[in-house]
Amino acid sequence: MTDKDIWRLDAHEIAARTRTGDVTVEEVIGDAVQRMNAVNPDLNAVVQSCADTAIERARALDKARAGGAEPGPLHGVPVTIKVNVDQTGFATTNGVPAFKDLIAPDDAPVVANLLKAGAVVIGRTNTPEFSFRADTDNPLHGRTHNPWGRHVSPGGSSGGAGAAVMAGIGALAHGNDIGGSLRFPAAANGAVTVKPGLGRVPAWNPSQKAERGMLAQSMSVQGLITRSAADLHLAMPSLIAPDPRDPFHVPLPWQGEALDGPIKVAFSREMYGYDLHPEVDAALTAAHDALRDAGYDVQEVELPDVFDAGRTGYRALMGEVHTLMKTDIDTYGSNTIREIFGTYFSEFPPFEGDELLAMMAKRSHYARQWSLFLEEYPLVLTPFQPRPFFGPDRDTQGPEGVDEVLGCAVYSYAFNFMGLPAACVPARLANLDAGPQPIPVQIVARRWREDLAVDAAAAVEARAGRMCEELWQRMD
Predict the structure, then answer these.
(1) Which member of 153, 158, 181, 220 is catalytic?
(2) Fewer CB within 10 Å, N side or C side of the chain?
(3) Does the pTM of the predicted model rise above 0.85?
């Protein structure tokens, strides 16, 4: 590797080299920007470049280090920020043309924490309108493409983040997740992520005019999409640093107490009436074997009902969305997003009134069931979706399309509703008729134990290999 290939380095490798002075931050960021300029025009993953301010910050970090300042744990690591989160001086567009001039007055906690740790923002990444699709396209910034090819969606709503980090645009990509928006893009692009549990990462947008609904507050989390599990272990301790602007943040350390081994992993192939595609089945088997060989005690068992928890949670969320967001969607949204939401409301009939309050209360019932289950099995290995990732605009194709995108994805949003952490990691690369694409699995963990999920993801990654090297060969 030459210094012109610095963009290929993972975040932990970049931080190690910049902290020792083996390479300057300016060199790292310069190469990252060159990579962004080379591949982003074809992908449209980054919709606003921060190159000028990134180079200025890189020089300032180099100068500070030369003057004796202690480098942060993410010193010089290039990152991207999703356009639905505040970054001082930039528009928080959320993919909506009417919001193109909504300039953030201050950094959101997640941005502030990354900067405090020494990271450098090189660009802002795309999201669908209102960040409420599992695909990424909008009338303001356009469509993001998957670097594996245009036969497969880049996922959403953090689709720009997933496509960017896997294409080599920055070593870390910020994203968020209310029903799968970190895990869908990780799954689609072959990246690694962990959806943090409730209260783990401080969150708030200084530009917002009103507080979000209670389910949005309790289901939505901030996180990172990376190319390796090791980078989650490096970066998440910085991301979870406290911020008083989030009064419900839980200030626990990233690394929990070691568990007596071997750690028991509950394993299920149950898909609640959906057929499991052979490639997904093969990925689950590969992950099962990887965890077993790494010393985990993997047992195929019956799980507490995921389908009921997931459907109840998403119908409750749709009830809140219908009450608090529908006016904005109708006023500012495109015909496409209005039609998609119409199908959402049909697929997930919104709970209303007393029933909505009752189903919000029932959230504790599901969470308690899982809390008791996770006492015996600290980790759970599941499918993420029953079939390989869908193509672009599948969710615009009526009820059948929305069912393939979201209806079958109960393993995703069920754990948002219960506030439990869940990692997503590729376990297999499938060569399908339409083209190659990664096949992921999901690993759920006990509350506050994201580190256990990431450890298990690393074990799967060690067996399956990292998808980025294969992808870069294909891109070149």
Answers:
(1) 181
(2) C
(3) yes
